[in-house]
Amino acid sequence: MVQISAAVQHTDAKPEGGRPLPSGVLAFLITDIEGSTQRWEAWPQAMRVAMGRHDHLVREALLRAGGHVFRTAGDAFYAAFVSPSEAIAAALAAQQALGREDFSEVGGIKVRMAVHAGPAESRDNDYFGQGMNRCARLLGIAYGGSSPPAWARAFRTFARSTPRSTTCRGR
C-alpha cells in the first residue's frame, strides 16, 4: 500500500530558481521528444532553433505550475511537484503551448509525457526511488502529441474524484 498525501519535506538541495527540492511523496513529470535523433540528423540547424523554443515553452509550463526542474537530458525534462494535479496541469499547459507552435521546419515534434506520484528521496539535486522509477517506466510506454482535450478531461476527472489524501492498493 502506498500512501499519497500532501505532506512534503524540504531538503537543503537547491535546483533551478534556488528553491529547496521537495521530498517525500511527490508527483513526477518527465517529458521527451519522439524521434529527436532523426530530426537532429536531418535538420541540425533547424533543430537548434526548434529545441530553443521547445525548451523555453516546456520549462515555463513546468515552473508556472509549481514544478521543480531537477534534471534535463538532451530534449527531456524531469520535474517534481507537490501534488499530482500540479503535474497534470503542467503537462496540459506544455502540450497546449507546444501545439500552438509551428515546428514544421523539423517535420513537427511530438512530446511524450508521463506523470506518476510516489515516494522519492532527494540527493545531490536529483531524485531516486520508487516514484521516480515508475514515472520513467511510464514514459517508456507513452506516445507523443496526445490531444490537449484528452489531458484536460483527465485533469478534470482527477481533480473531481481525488481527495487530498488517497490510498492506492497494488496487487
What does the model show?
The protein is an alpha+beta fold and 171 residues long. The protein contains five helices and eight strands, in the order E-E-E-H-H-E-E-H-E-E-H-H-E. The protein has helices at residues 36-42, 44-64, 84-100, 130-141, 148-161; strands at residues 2-4, 8-10, 22-33, 68-73, 76-81, 111-123, 126-128, 166-168. The N and C termini lie close together (9 Å). 35% of the residues are buried.
Give the tags.
disordered N terminus; 171 residues; alpha+beta; two-stranded antiparallel ribbon; six-stranded antiparallel sheet
Shape: elongated
Give helix and strand order, one letter per element, not per position: EEEHHEEHEEHHE
| Overall SS class | alpha+beta
Number of strands: 8
Distance separating the two termini: 9 Å
Biggest sheet overview: 6 strands, antiparallel
Overall helicity: 40-55%
Outline the low-pLDDT stretches: 1-14, 165-171
Number of helices: 5
Strand fraction band? 25-35%
Nearest-integer average pLDDT: 79
Taking all Cα atoms into account, the compactness measure Rg is 16 Å
